[in-house]
Amino acid sequence: MEFVGVIAEYDPFHSGHQAQLQMLRRQGARTIAVCMSSGAVQRGGVPLLPEPVRTRAALLAGADLVVALPAPYASSGAEQFAAAGVALLDALGCDTLAFGAETPAAALLLRAARLLQQDVLTAELRRQLAAGQTFAAARAAAVRAVAPWAAELLREPNNILGIEYCRALLRQGSRMQVCPLPRLEAGHGDAVPGAAQGREIASASFLRAAVRRGGVAALRPYVPCEAYELYRAAADGGQLFSPERFDTALLALLRSRTRAELAAVRGVSEGIEHRLWAAVRTATDCESLYMAMKTKRYPHARLRRLALDAALGVRAGALPPLPPFLHVLGARRQALPLLRQARLPASTSLAKLERALPQQGELFALYGRFADLSALCRQKIMPMGLAYTAKPVVL
After folding, report:
1. Which of the listed residues 58, 316, 329, 386 has the most CB atoms within 10 Å of its CB?
2. Do 72 and 366 contact (CB within 8 A), yes or no?
């Protein structure tokens, strides 16, 4: 385990993330690369803090290299999110993929990933979907019917994402080894914090809610000291996410879309575009929009991603299946030579990458558009074009 890759959002980077990096060092990792959501996050929204702040927090805590998981891959469903992150870390030259899991057993997670590829499970999944269930519920039912031993694994959110990483490794023929790490105390989405290894641990969702209630000072017990100073300075500069600005920006963009544009959005099926069209006309904020779109077949996270895609014009079939470039957000100086071994164009300059890949104009335009929305949704509005003009963080 020489060159370890981690797929993350760091929204925000907290003590549990720091503990994960420290675990990897103790297990022998010489270099740690992070593929971090950029421009958007997987739940279908904007990160609490901009990329340079999250990048610097990760580097100060022990990461060596941070590359972008670019929107709109960053705001896609678990399968595409995992596939994109795995492809980028593999292209970077990582030999190991590390991730947190409630069941940190590599062989078991890989066995479950192989199960999900089998035709017998696919047939049962189609049967469950035909009965009107959501994809997640249908897959859980199919697994219970075909392989009850795997059903418990798929009840836990980090296991689910870890298995998707394993599926991506198998499908892409990657040689990266799998290194699942134990999830420390506070689980994904836990409403209360926990403690581990002498530090207070809270989930990222708990911390985002705490900031909404009490400001950035609420982060102090749960994040590394260096990260807290970064977050406090960012808050003083008006860089925290503003839910109110996001509501206004998203609804304004959606109200400008035609029926035909909504019908062409990535992920639209079964007439959901008609529910979105109607919801946009009555919604006064994002939560009322999602509630008006609600349907048994579409979980809340999928509706959020769909609304974000519709607002920013992510058309079905517009993206290459996997990201074709490595946009470097930050690095320790001694790690920069590693970019020379990358199997994809790699640069700290998005403009340089765009010139190298002129056939990917729509992807670069979308990446920039997502970054511009993120810049608009800060307590102090930031300028356009930051995907191109923000300087990389180099330590």
Report:
1. 58
2. yes
Question: CA-CA distances (angstroms) from residue 23 to 161, 180, 315, 318, 369?
Answer: 20, 11, 40, 39, 36
Distance, in Å, from the CA atom of 201 to the CA atom of 217, rounded to the nearest integer, reads 16
What is the rounded CA–CA span in Å between residue 367 and residue 357?
A: 14
pLDDT tens, residue by residue, 44-76 = 999 999 999 999 999 999 999 999 999 999 999
Q: What is the pLDDT of residues 213-254, one digit of tens each?
A: 999 999 999 999 999 999 999 999 999 999 999 999 999 999
Fold (CATH) for 3-102+179-241+319-394: Rossmann fold (3.40.50)
Encoding tokens for residue 52?
């340079």
Q: If we measure between CA atoms, which residue out of 283, 244, 256 comes closest to residue 381?
A: 244
The Cβ of residue 8 has, within 10 Å, a number of other Cβ atoms equal to 22
Sign of CA pseudo-dihedral 109, 100, 297, 47: negative
User: Quick one: how many helices (H) and strands (E) in the chain?
Assistant: 18, 10
CB distance 345 to 324 below 8 Å: yes
Map residue 319 onto helix, strand or coil: coil
- Which tokens is 183 given? 């999830």
Tell me the C-alpha distance between 105 and 183, whole Å. 12
- Do the strands 194-196 and 199-201 form a parallel or antiparallel pair, or are they unpaired? antiparallel
Sequence spans of domains, the chain: 3-102+179-241+319-394, 250-312
